[in-house]
Amino acid sequence: MGSLYCRQTIRAWNYIRITGSAPLKAIIHETEKFRCNACLEIFEANFEGKNAPKYDEGAHAIIAMLKYSASVPFYRLEKIQKHLHTPMPASTQWDLMENLGNHLYPIWQSLLKSASEGNKFFIDDTKAKVLALMKENKKQSPERKGIYTTGLISETDEGKIVLYLTGRRHAGENIDRIIRERKSDKRAILMSDALSANDKSDYNFLRSYCLTHGRRKFYDLDKKFTEASEFVVGQIAVAYKNDKYCKENHLSPAERLKYHQEHSRESMSDLKKWCENIIENKEAEPNSILSTEIMYLLNHWDGLASFLSIEGAELDNNQLEQKLRLSVLNRKNWLFYKSELGALIGDIICSLIKTCEAANVNPFDYFVWAMKNKDLIKSSPENFLPWRFKV
């Protein structure tokens, strides 16, 4: 047998083996019991975890992730668990989520308070279904019948906060309720589309409107307006190209504003002049689609071009719309909330999932951590915000 001489260090190699298992697994302990003939007292064998709760922190966390992040309905998980010989009724799953939501509620309240101090806000609405409110619409005929989920992002000095608020209020009303708690004197930027429902706050925001909404309207124009569509889309594309450069080179908000003023102002000015000429020279029918879309740009120009005048203003509301997609997928998969309480639990858990993701924190680990510290959360919820997560 020869000797092995190592002259060169070769890096270690990892071999990964992935195995499958049920989302929720059960461990069954069979114990013997004995009765004393003298005193008739019953003695039972002891084992580790005997007095622990039936459902641990991980069970709460995985159900929350499947239901609110992966959009898996309770009944579907119930069916899967039945096949895998670990029954988990839908009613039990709801009880666990209500328990989790109750323990996370103080953290959610702390998030709402922290969100009020944001430097930049993004808001938008999507339709929601809450059976209790829908029944109320049929029986009582309230003045407001609309039901919405508001998505809200607040960029604070501590971290980015993502919130979901489901009910009858529009995004503008929800941001108004949050901003009332604000103590900072610095004016905040508010990004949204140009719907009047988003401008219900008494707070004097620096307003930005989503440029993508303006661009999308022209991108979807009929083929007979191809020339106009290509011109508008092309002019807006210059601003996006310049914004991409700013992000890739990590320019500060002040440097980014200056760069846009030097490189994007001309294309945006040409776009505005073109729109004004079309209207003034009556080159488009007053009630035509083209005229309508041009007037949208002109009526909201200051907000759409705010990135040329406001330091830190974004071009669009895309990042919030991406977050709001979670609510849309949940609505498509499990259709509705049964009650306002169910909607509140969903808002709490969804808000914390997306805020964890924004803070680069694993939501599953965070929920386990929060459940293990549920008694401390009651007294100091601000110490358990996602960016303060500790392994």
* Beta-strand percentage range: 5-15%
Instruction: Indicate the structural class.
Output: alpha/beta
Query: N-to-C SSE series?
Result: EEHHHEHEEHEEHHHHHHHHHH
Shape call:
elongated
- Report the sheet with the most strands, covering strand number, pairing sense and barrel closure: 5 strands, mixed
Number of helices: 15
Helical fraction equals 40-55%
Average pLDDT rating:
90
In total, the number of strands is 7
Question: Could you give the distance between the termini?
Answer: 49 Å
Based on CA atoms alone, the radius of gyration comes out at 28 Å
Spatial strand order of the main sheet: 5-4-3-6-7
Contiguous low-pLDDT stretches (5 residues minimum) are none
Characterization of the model:
The protein has 391 residues and is of the alpha/beta class. Among the domains are: 111 residues, no CATH class; 106 residues. Helix content is 49%, strand content 10%. The protein has 15 helices and 7 strands. The strands form 2 sheets. It has a 5-stranded mixed sheet with strand order 5-4-3-6-7, with helices on both faces. Strands 1-2 form a two-stranded antiparallel sheet. 32% of the residues are buried.
